[in-house]
Specification:
Helix content: 10-25%
Structural class: alpha+beta
Number of helices: 2
Oligomer: single chain
Number of domains: 1
Number of strands: 13
Radius of gyration: 15 Å
CATH topology: T-fold
Strand content: 35-45%
CATH architecture: Roll
Length: about 140
């Protein structure tokens, strides 16, 4: 089941896993820039600062808030995708990673959560066993 880009799985996966296109916008077409992975179970979530944006005065803002300031989190990562045992855990970790900024890769690695982080400049980083190739399994 996919809800707004977050995916929960149940039951026995197909032999090659469920193919999932990981992109910066959950409504992107299948051939959009991103990575296709084979999800074998658990959940997958992507949090992003690129889609839900607006302008207030001279500032462009996004929807992920830093609880310490109550303001949009500083942008280090424009997209973070996380695989976890369940979709809720994946969603919590992907959003928290946006807020944690530069500390996110070490935090995700320490939790053993496979993750794909896209920096504001488009550089892609991987943690905790997230596959780096196209059409790889998780």
């Amino acid at each position: 089941m996919s809800i707004g880009g977050d995916i929960a799985t149940a039951g026995t996966p197909p032999p090659d896993g469920w193919p999932v296109r990981v992109a910066e916008d959950h409504s992107s077409p299948f051939d959009a820039a991103g990575q296709t992975i084979a999800l074998r179970g658990g959940g997958l979530a992507t949090s992003s600062t690129t889609v839900r944006r607006w302008t207030r005065g001279e500032r462009e803002l996004h929807h992920i808030l830093d609880p310490a300031s109550g303001r949009p989190a500083p942008e280090c990562w424009r997209t973070v995708s996380v695989a976890a045992d369940c979709c809720v855990d994946a969603n919590i970790a992907s959003t928290a990673a946006i807020v944690r900024g530069e500390r996110a890769p070490g935090w995700l690695e320490g939790l053993g959560l496979p993750s794909r982080l896209v920096a504001v400049d488009g550089t892609v980083s991987f943690t905790a066993g997230w596959p780096e190739g196209e059409h790889s399994s998780l």
